[in-house]
Amino acid sequence: MRGDSQSPDGTRVWPTGTDYSRAVQSPVASFSDAELAAGKVGTNALGMPLVASGQNAVVFLLETELGQRAIRCFLAPPHEGAVRYEALEAHLVDTAPRALTAARYLKEGISLSGQTWPVVVMPWVEGSPLNIAVEDMVGDGARLRALAVQWTEVVRSLQRARVAHGDLQHGNVLVKPNDSIALVDLDGVWVPEIRVGPPAEFGHPNYQHPQRSTQHWGQYVDSFPGALIELALTALAADESLDRFLHGENLLFMRSDLERPDDSEVWQAVCASPDPDVAVMAAHLRRCCAGPIADVLLPFDQLRDGSAADRTVHRSWKAASATPAQPQVSATAGGNWWEQSERPASALRSASEPPASLTPATVATASPTAGPTPAPATDAAAVHVSPLVRLGQNLAAAGLVGGVLAGVLAALVTGVVESAFHGSAGTAAFVFMIGLFVGGLLLSMQAFVGRNWSAAARRFAIGGGLGAAAALVAMPLADVAVRGLGPKDGREMPLGLDILMFVVVATLLGLAVGSIRSVKTAIGGMLAGAAGGAVGGLVFGATAAQWEGTMLHVRFLSAGTMLAVAVATGSIGWAVGMLVRMRRTASLTIIEGANSGMEIAVEGSRAVIGASAGCDLVLRDDAKVQAQHAIVWLDVSPPEVEPIGTVLRNGAELSGRTALGPGDVVMIGGSFIRIEFKEDV
User: Fold this and answer.
1) pLDDT higher than 70, residue 283
2) What's domain 128-334+366-380's architecture?
């Protein structure tokens, strides 16, 4: 580690990437923060720290008890960094724009050679730089159009929150595995509370208006690069041959194209787009490049619409700084700060390898809300995906979790009330409770974790009723099997009968739950239930079952019984959930919005989306969603979506029943929903 800390002229010499790499290998000695000090640095196959390098910082992965963290270490003084981050945190108090994530600025974050240096700490989330993601999407117009729709809402959400990123470009925009968008590197951020001058840099030259300088900084400085990125995405969606203008450091346009738009081949090609909307927008932005920068320092939607109104906005940092603070629209904390490049997370290297500008797999928790002009999110759950939602992201997971909960609840409830029963009545009550809770939770688990309470109650009542009825039918059948096949001479009951008893009950439960959907699913449910019941019966018989002749005794409240029954019913739930998922005709997956990540399996001729508890996909607490908002018809080829309320498909508003393609994204209220068909998933 370098021993010198000052240059000959007395100024402070900042550590190199190698210095930081050595320091992070000893977290206890290097970090003042307790969480980081107890962490462990992420390493490559050679055991060296994973590092992403940029012009002004390096980023390391740190594994902590609270999760993976990205640690950004500065190679040069952050330009009034502490002041900027504090101002941003003060502004973003309640609800963040979806593309931002929480971050902490630690002024004395890391120690090297007896001196402390600042770091920025944030969650580490997977994502690919925008240009890499776009290159992978070329040829898939639906995905590119859906990405463009999300992008416009990212820019809108920033401006609604009175936040400007300051350097919107491919390296600072990550696309996560579910195609949602996250922003990184907020070193040039603007919020009204900032009372210092503009940052030292003013954005990537391939995305900024030719006249922009450091003096152009304020609420609407993102409008031009935001519109340019939207244009590039929609143009590539309409004409994949435009990928010839992708050069690794741009999205179609280079600095020379922006400075000399009349002589630019790419502008000529985009203005001749087969999509008339793209051609119109291209002509407008081409004129803007040749005009004064004041013409683009407008609200994003005004610039996109070609409006010349309201030009008395923030045109310099002086005007921006003089603007009094207004009521905050806010967020949970800061943002994401580090250098980005065009290479994906898989390219992270050791600090001992040759220098390169790499991209850490990181950032935000969510991207846009949705709709042309949605209201700012106010529910924290709408910004950060609840861990509970992840438990119900598909029917297999929901079935497993619901089954485990059903077994525990059945044992608890039966144990509490068992004193009211005599003899075999307690066991009968136990089987009844298993049927009630397994049937109810298998049908309602996804609604419960999505906090769709009315839908959950309705589905639990239906599923619980069917499950309880199945249990009532199964009990005498299981009793006949036990009495007919059990030993008559006082010998121990064979394990096979425990398995048979569970198979009988689980088979009828699978039949009951499957019958809600279709005859084929009911038959498959029987088989899935039988398989899950066999596993459950084996576990239960080997651990918790106690027989006296043909009388089963269960200590319901013992930990062993609860564990055995949870494994048993969890196996049943998982098997039935997998069966229903495999039998689906289509999947509806919320890729952005409340309950992001939720996947609903649809079987039959149609799927209804809306706010009503009776819908297949329930979008709760969204004033823009009607009781029944849209119907996806699956009994026609190709499938179609029928809008009842306002519905956008891949960014275009629908006026009537419209054909769907695999992977199409529809936007309803504040949710983006991807629709996939069985043969494609």
Assistant:
1) yes
2) Orthogonal Bundle (1.10)
